[in-house]
Amino acid sequence: MAISESSLHPYIKGLVEESGKLTVTDLNKYLRDILVLDSNDLTILTGRNDDKFSQIVRNVVAHAPDGISNKNGYIIDKTKKPAVFYAKEFNIANLTETKISNSTIKERRDRKRKFTARKIDFKTINNENSALGDAGENFALEWERKRLKDLNVSFDIMDEVIHFSRKYGDGAGYDILSRKDNNYELLYIEVKTTKSGLNTPFYMSENEKLFMDIYKENTLIYRVYNYNHETNVGEIEIITQSLLENEYIFNPITYKVSKK
What we know:
Blueprint: H1 5-19, E1 21-23, H2 24-34, H3 52-62, E2 68-71, E3 74-77, E4 84-86, E5 88-91, E6 96-99, H4 102-112, H5 131-150, H6 157-160, E7 162-163, E8 176-179, E9 186-193, H7 206-214, E10 219-228, E11 233-240, H8 241-247
Parallel strand pairs: 9-10
Antiparallel strand pairs: 1-4, 2-3, 3-4, 5-6, 7-8, 8-9, 10-11
């Protein structure tokens, strides 16, 4: 299915949060690294040297207000050429949202170098793209939004809590991007769903495990269990990185086999 401008916003949000700051040129490149584009997306535009997808990315900038705008959970600065996308910092004292600081940008980029999101277009053993997996992620997404609503957070929950893995599989290392609470600290959520009880084993890809090890202070597993897909009823157990390491056993059970 061809990609639309509106469908890009969650992925722009996630990529900008990871790096802190990206030009529209950087964004075009990184989006291509993670999204599976179809022939329509890659159609070369008449009289131009680029394709339809590049135009869609440029439209995100073109359709934003002139100057510096704050929307969809990130800041676009059109006063710079090319335009620059920034993650946001929140000032609790005066309830304002501003561009992220240079020191935080450096910190995020240093961490990002340790983990490179990958495009995943195959089904893993835990079949994250199954109807059950998708339903469980949506259940956890709504649960997370309610959690923040109950905390009476001051930020826009719909902008800050996004389903990042919807088009993307486990390549990102997490499924939902959120905030811990009113301190605006990022929260990465990996969702694991089962129809059975809490103690049912679940699967993690090497990519997911690596992400959790690197972003350990900001990553949680939401274990959705006793989940009924038809009624959309279930329970959630929250698993931290330290709990995962100390109270769970990892058994390697699958291999990727390539010809020598």
